[in-house]
Amino acid sequence: MKEKSGGLLELQCFYGGSKGDEVATVDLMKSGQLDGVAVSSVGLARLHKPALALQMPGLFTTWAKLDAARDALAGELETGLRNAGAGLVGWYDVGMVSVLSRGFPVRAPANLKGKKPWLWRDDPVVKAFYQRIGGVTPVSRSVLEVLPRLSTSAVDAVLQSPLAVEQLQWASKLDTITDLVVGPGVGAIVLAQKRLDALPGDLRSVVLDTGKIAAAALKNRIRTEDAAALARLKTKMTVVSLTAEERGWWNARFKETRQLLAQGTFSPVLVARLESMA
């Protein structure tokens, strides 16, 4: 971007949560203290909640299905983000979500009853899933608060992508992984629409064109590395292989979760539309 703009534009990036969690960084962008953010589910929900519907469990268990659905919704998702003050640079993903635990196998959703699974604050999808299981009291914490709680067993299960589990250093605190794809973890790179609109047209094009290339490269790299992370975890952890009946139990809870989400979190029309795409 710096090269193509003749040195007129340059990125300064803040890593490792140094500006706070996703909700904090989105709020900083809205207030003009940051020009943009890279967000996953919770950040997207803060900007345009319907984008989070792509993460509903049991729907898009392959990247091809996710890509097709996201392409079909592209126009309305970009408009929704723009109305929230965020210009879309590009989509990316954080991996396919698995069920990981410590000290016990998770063969069925009911195995989480009485346990201490992590719930990312402000994540309505996973919250609805735990509500449908019943008897689950999740531990609601930000991402940065999970590792110390895994170390003390204050958290004993997570729904997260293998790559994220490795990168966040959670893997050594977990010992069991269920052979099940819950759904994708989606994300996006966005810039403040006001900041984009303030740029001359040629510079705005440089930002968006190079950003699109970067986001596509990031998406492809993460997908490859997530698959490799899953393979590594399966060599280090106990793998719970599900029977057809057990997969049916998961699918039933996933469907009930989507029905619950259609009662207020997302529109019934959107949920039905995404189910038809899956």
Automatic annotation (TrEMBL):
Entry annotated with the keyword Signal: yes
Coiled-coil region(s): none
- Homology family: Belongs to the bacterial solute-binding protein 7 family.
**Name the UniProt record assigns to this protein:** TRAP-type C4-dicarboxylate transport system, substrate-binding protein
Gene3D superfamilies listed in its UniProt record:
Bacterial extracellular solute-binding protein, family 7
| A GO biological process held by the record | transmembrane transport
Q: Name one Pfam family in it.
A: DctP
Instruction: Tell me the domain of life.
Output: Bacteria
